[in-house]
Amino acid sequence: MNAPLPAEVLKQHLIDPEICIRCNTCEETCPIKAITHDSNNYVVDPEICNGCMACVPPCPTGAIDNWRLMVRAEAYGVQEQLGWEELPGEKALPESAAAAPVGDDDAAAAAEPVAPAPSAAPGATVPPWSAAHPYVNLYTHKAPMTATVVGNYRVTGADTESDIHHIVLDFGDLPFPVLEGQSIGILPPGVDAQGRAHHARQYSLASPRDGERAGYNNLSLTVKRVTEDHAGAAAHGVCSNYLCDLAKNDKVQVIGPFGHTFLMPNHPRANLIMICTGTGSAPMRAMTERYRRRIETGENGKLLLFFGARTERELPYFGPLMKLPRDFIDINLALSREAGQPKRYVQDLIRDRAGAVRELLADRNTCIYVCGLKGMEVGVLDALREVTLQAGEDWSILHDALRREGRLHFETY
Ligand code: NAP
């Protein structure tokens, strides 16, 4: 059993700035708002953190899982942490405070109180039971891998504002094992306004585990050129513009892979409900392609896709998607700005297809994946709640089960 810590000692929760990919998952997950960030770092406020561990499982890199035994009065403050480029080393405690030894695996027990807090995240923090084991953090900021661009194609209509690219990176002879649903980090060249090297930007894989081209050591990304922020003001996306402008044979610095929960089930006849907007289609393309490549095994479950975009011409991969056999994937497109058509969001189509959604939800072999705009989260959850209630079922019970069993996953920004 773990010995309790003396009152003046704090097992301080810290985030490793060298591993963190600034994905915001921890800040979103923390049930008591102990995590904050600036343009440099994500940090934990020692005045608020109660060591509940809710943020630890969802972190795609493990950067969140760092702890230091500190004299409470000397704990690292928020401002100090925001300035860090790397974690400080362990400090020896004064003898009076060093009575209780604490090991690496007893962080939860060491920070008081230990009552597990429910996560604030709407989705699961565990993968589906049959997901393959993912590798994470094989390549880091300190030791990135160099990939070669072998393809860069626009996948939206040339006459539209949505300049979305399908970018293929090849890893040559170096191992880069990935699973559908995982992401990688790209290190854009150059420095930020403070003269620091740019942080890595995270992109979901758009290709399945066996490569963009089956059997090749490559993968693909879906990248939208950012020219404005979420509020519509002009903004130059550092990494998206860098990536969209890459030419064949250019070299790119890559870190990762990341992610150990947003993974697809591996058991036969698992069904997928995929709900996405815009470039959030990347992991859906990866999972769909995984299923497509094994159609002949006869082991696939059903695929139900809800895909939102402004218009058909702004929907990435529209052409190839529409060529997929209708008995392989049930495709529902929600177009919000198509001339002469009413505005439709994915959540509207979930309601329209309530019967099909309910049928799959009733099957414990079904997993749900939601990826894309942050704003869709609430709407999608409301729609799922409604279709469940219509059948006389209790959404809160089903929602809890979906989260507990790793069957409902969100990746939204
Ligand atoms: P977008 O073109 O701005 O929007 C796609 C569609 O979603 C549009 O039809 C839009 O309708 C609709 N929409 C807007 N608000 C919505 C809401 N509250 N509920 C449901 N639908 C809504 O999308 P985008 O620029 O491609 O953005 C995709 C998002 O995915 C980004 O936030 C990106 O960070 C994220 N993402 C990307 C990746 C990747 O690997 N590239 C991975 C994960 C997530 P309107 O006509 O009303 O705008």
UniProtKB/TrEMBL annotation:
Enzyme Commission number, as recorded: 1.14.13.208
Gene name for this UniProt entry: boxA
Protein name: Benzoyl-CoA oxygenase component A
Cofactor(s) in the UniProt record: FAD
Keyword Lipid biosynthesis assigned: no
GO molecular function: iron-sulfur cluster binding; metal ion binding; oxidoreductase activity
Family matches, as PANTHER family: PTHR43314
Binding site for NADP(+): S204, K224, T279, S336, R337, K343, G372, L373, E411
Keywords from the named record: FAD, Flavoprotein, Iron, Iron-sulfur, Metal-binding, NADP, Oxidoreductase
Pfam families in the cross-refs: Fer4_7 (PF12838), NAD_binding_1 (PF00175)
PROSITE patterns reported in the protein's UniProt record: 4FE4S_FER_1 (PS00198), 4FE4S_FER_2 (PS51379), FAD_FR (PS51384)
Residue ranges occupied by any FAD-binding FR-type domain in the UniProt entry: 142-264
Organism domain of life: Bacteria
Enzyme class: oxidoreductase
Record text on subunit structure and interactions: Homodimer.
Chain positions covered by the region annotation Disordered: 95-125
Reaction(s) catalysed by this chain's protein: benzoyl-CoA + NADPH + O2 + H(+) = 2,3-epoxy-2,3-dihydrobenzoyl-CoA + NADP(+) + H2O
The 4Fe-4S ferredoxin-type domain, residue ranges: 11-40, 42-69
Presence of keyword Iron-sulfur: yes
InterPro entries listed in its UniProt record: 4Fe4S_Fe-S-bd, 4Fe4S_Fe_S_CS, Benzoyl_CoA_Oase_BoxA, FAD-bd_FR_type, Flavoprot_Pyr_Nucl_cyt_Rdtase, FNR, FNR_nucleotide-bd, OxRdtase_FAD/NAD-bd
SUPFAM superfamilies, alphabetized: 4Fe-4S ferredoxins, Ferredoxin reductase-like, C-terminal NADP-linked domain, Riboflavin synthase domain-like
Lineage per the UniProt record: Bacteria, Pseudomonadati, Pseudomonadota, Betaproteobacteria, Burkholderiales
Biased composition (Low complexity): 97-125
